[in-house]
Amino acid sequence: MAKRVLIAEDEPSIVTSLEFLMRRAGFDTRSAVDGEEALSLLETFHPHVVLLDIMLPRVSGLEICRFIRGQPALAGTRVLMLTAKGGQREVERGIEAGADDYLTKPFSTHDLVARVQALAADTPLRIAPGPDPRFPP
To answer: Comparing 58 with 130, which gets the higher pLDDT?
Structure first.
């Protein structure tokens, strides 16, 4: 079964590139163009890794990262922040919010794929409470 990657990014050209890279690397992907959509997909798609832009419309990437860290059902989810903001303070804010890794744009596609593969390999299996919506009783 392919590991799942959620891409939360509001720039269409970046989403297209990320989807291509992740699928070529063997990941099952879903994409969200704003923070609200990302929060919804977290509950239905159950990603192993989230590629998370900090500056998303409606709900920021930092808020989404904090949400992930506050949910026991998402305890094994890894977060890689992708952002144009690469200053020391921005990196610190991402790590403080619970990000596992931080990559600034523009980035090396080889480096990105390698980081996602490393994060996905470290993701423990988790059993979410309640029924899985993908498999009705």
So the answer is: 58
